Fold:
Amino acid sequence: MTQPRKPRELVRAGTTVDHMTRLLADRIVTGIMRPGEKLDEISLARRFDVSRTPVREALGHLAAMGLVERRPNRGAFVATVTPAHLASMFETMAELEAICARLSAERMTAQERRGLEIEHCASAQFVRSDAESDYELFNQDFHTRLYRGAHNAHICDLATRTRSRLAPFRRAQFRIDGRLAKSWREHEQIVTAVLAGDGVAAAVAARDHVTLVGVASAVFASED
Amino acid sequence: MTQPRKPRELVRAGTTVDHMTRLLADRIVTGIMRPGEKLDEISLARRFDVSRTPVREALGHLAAMGLVERRPNRGAFVATVTPAHLASMFETMAELEAICARLSAERMTAQERRGLEIEHCASAQFVRSDAESDYELFNQDFHTRLYRGAHNAHICDLATRTRSRLAPFRRAQFRIDGRLAKSWREHEQIVTAVLAGDGVAAAVAARDHVTLVGVASAVFASED
DNA sequence: AAGGCGTCAAGTGCATACACTTTATGCGAT
DNA sequence: ATCGCATAAAGTGTATGCACTTGACGCCTT
Structure:
């Protein structure tokens, strides 16, 4: 009488929880669900045709990621990011990138250095053709290489996480005039320093690069 | 027939999930539950007299914290930390502390500086009396002040989390002869630099301090 | 009329039942 | 004896129901 459950019709890639987590994360970072908005478990479960259990678990994960705030017995809300907190995240990102750049300059293998240089040079064509989304892919790859090159799993993890949390706020950065070329020149400085094995210069260049992105994004955010 | 649920007898402080999370985290970091050990949801639920739901949620939180590894459809295990990964965490900790120390030197308010100095001086008595556990409390407080003093919520968060993940490995550090006095002298250097507003010196002192702790712990871990 | 109190509805928290996956075990074939 | 396969047992994943908390509304009191 109680649970005549229907079998799962659709075989999904991962688990339902993973699916829900991605679904909700997307909607939050793209702004479809706005900061402060209530995330009602029952409505979400109905809306995506699952039970409350995976929704609850997904909300837990999102809360751990900082995308969602949870108040005991009161439900979950899309996290509100204050300008101050946003600034602190950008500053942290700048410091993490600086560390990675320094360590990369000191530790990258010959192969890693070559890879960094090749990919960086390849991305120049997208600057010339002003292909923002293509450039963004290379940009992502570039930073990932820097994190990996540090040869430190934990800091790579921290940097990756922080970067993904900042993703929604960096989204619009290239709309600012000439940003693409400017970004590339900044990358150029980092690459040069890393290839020269100059950790200090690499750190400074990386920190400045991210700091400038942060400023640009802050300008954009406040315009919005 | 199905759910004649008994009312909750004991009113606990937080939610059951929080309780379970703390309980399991304690058992993991204190080594009662050993790395690689399987964490069976059913057994845990029975053992602590709750249902599987809060156990599952707690395991999720612990996985997010890195204390537990989860394999889909295969259960949860106490996370195994390889020496390499441990080293990477200590190195990251050293870099994070260095950043916090630098920013603290630049940004702490007069009141925060005073507080840091007073607490540091007060802790000297525990060095003289060789009171390890008392000193450890002050030590914790000291580092927390450095994180807070950076005036950057996000980096404070990263530092605090990383520190708590390293806690079990730092536990035994003071067993090494003279470590207490050595730690205090290292703190002294950090305090001096911070009070002088010398960010670079503070960063160097903080990085060295943590690096030495890491080395000491590594020695201990390999002895074990 | 305003404030306090009781009641109720909505929604979260936890328990438990069912479905599905993985792994261990036993049996037969080679 | 060993390898494969079938089958079962154990355990995870998901659904759903009941209990408890919280906030809102309306009624009664002053």
